[in-house]
Amino acid sequence: MAQPQTKAASDLTDLLRRAAAHHQRGELTQAETLYSQVLARQANNFDALHLYGVLLHQRGRPVEALASIGKALAANARAPAAHSNHGIVLAVLNRHAEAVEAYERAIALKPDYAEAHNNRGNALRALSRTEDALAAFDRALALKADYAEAHNNRGNALMEVGRREEALASYNAALAARPAYADALVNRGQCLNALRRADEALADFDRALTLHPHHAVALKERGRLLFDRGELAAALDCYDRSLAITPDDAETHARRGLTLRDLKRFDEAFAAYDRALALKPDFIDAVVARGNVFYQMGRFAEGLAEYERALAMQPDFAYGFNNRGNALQALGRHSEALASYERALTIDPAYTEAYNNRGNALVELNRLDEALSDYNAAIGGKPFASALVNRGSALRYLDRADEALASFDQAIALEPNMPEAHWNKALLCLTLGDYERGLEGYEWRWRGATELTPRGFSQPQWRGEDVAGKTILLHAEQGFGDSIQMLRYLPLVKAKGARIVLELPDALIPLLGAMADNVTVFNRGTPLPPFDMHCPLMSLPLAFGTRVETVPAEVPYLHVPAERRERWRARLPKDDTRRVGLVWSGKPSHKNDHNRSIALGRLAALIATPGLSFVSLQREYRDADLPVLAQLPIARIDDSIADFADTAAVVEQCDLVIAVDTAVAHLAGSLGKPLWVLLSHIQDWRWLRDRADSPWYPSARLFRQSRDGNWDSVIATLTRELAALAAG
TPR repeats located where (predicted)? Predict the structure, then answer.
């Protein structure tokens, strides 16, 4: 009677053996069918429940896996492997504390169970118990010295606490134990990249992909490295290949968005971030990244909205407050920006970038000593180049030139090809009258230090070599004032025997007068004739080796067209009073306009000077100035000004021009008209430092603001001088 039971048990054993064989070969469907048959006959079969649970875990069904292994343990709680596998599934479900308990039960049953010690280390890492995790990995390795996974996981834990050299040693040990271990190659590559050994890192990623061409993480990390190198197209390709394997990886979509942003493919960048957020709605970094795209596009208000959306998701998000400050700063809302940076620093007192940015806001608010303190804090732990550049600029504004130069040089030592460092050093050198270094450094404006974009001509830039008999294109590049200042070099180029093609804005062409003789003049945007070489107008001082004492300063060099002169002479007949042309503000979009411009109401006492008449030389007015303008005795002619030739004709009818640093100041100086220039403390390089005159404009007097940013003393001095002039 016992024989049928023996046969049934034998059949069950055979089914289980066949299921396990299919399982080991990776034939999961066949294995699942056979495990199910075993459990249909014997529902509490430990081995079937345990191995079926492992299979369910492998098929991405962790909840069912947990239930099956739990039933197995109910049938036999003395199986260490089942406890360890139970812990693995709990970890997948992010139940790490319970996973640790499961591994500890396994270890209690089998103290030399190296795999359980390793798995326990992984769960402890997930709980941020890094030191305990390292101890667990060390115990696993003491039991099994060539345990590649434990070496690899130990490396991961060491990376989390910044012990990169030790991590590298662990990854090396893992690969010594198993040379074809792709995951360890990827992790070692990340470690090498963090150690700035990018070529070795790239070799590891490539080796991993040779072993496993569809290793999504290797592709993602390779893309990250290539992005950091500026190889954006290659990085994008890596991210695309990674997402073809793991399309639901939100982080890779976000990295792809960052790459598309830098490629200026903004719509695609937004789509990538939106996909990341669809996969992970609480992905706050992707929200901030959307704001960064808007910021790069110059759509600062929309960027601000994204940063505030991120802060609504996480009110203690220091990075969000920092970027919110950047958007407010770009919108000219400097006090609000300052408050945002302060909030970031309250959350994270060690946030060096926020110190740097708060320093920038303080500079805009003319709180230079406080700004310097912030820059010092930013570079105190570990100097970084952008903070050193900003520190140099603050020192420049504080008239501490030697320290400023040293700060720029420190930045250049850290990042030799950093355009902003070279550019700002050049501006300081020019301000100090060191044109030899300054003019050479000024060429960094084409290499990313400014928003200027090189024209992309195939012809070389002229740097002063023999140009006789050749055709040279001279072209405007920046504002009207810059072009007006540099047109003085036109006769000098002509004297070298060159054929000149001159590209200028339409508004300036009528002022050339005799300088246009034998010069082919084109408006910007018109197709150009052939030429042999080119020179931007602002590079002409470099080409001529200009020094402060050799500035070509013969004025006038621009001229009012005769018909404009007659028209404005009739419009503005002379009387017994002296006429003063006045410019108190420039374009609000100018980077330094909030420093250089003055509210019209502050000039009321000056305009009340007896014996003078005033005419506004402005074409644009701020809303806040219009009611004041209506109450003051200033003639308005803006409705009749078509171009700079009209403005020049009006300037010619004036006895004196008083102007803040705008194109009209340059125009008056180029016409040789008596000119008083009101300069903010943070002034342009061409006005030099500590001088009341200008080598560029012999008819100019300079009235400089004190470093505190207050115009009152400047206006008081100007009013006294003007009264003396009127009385004389």
Answer: 80-113, 114-147, 148-181, 182-215, 216-249, 250-283, 284-317, 318-351, 385-418
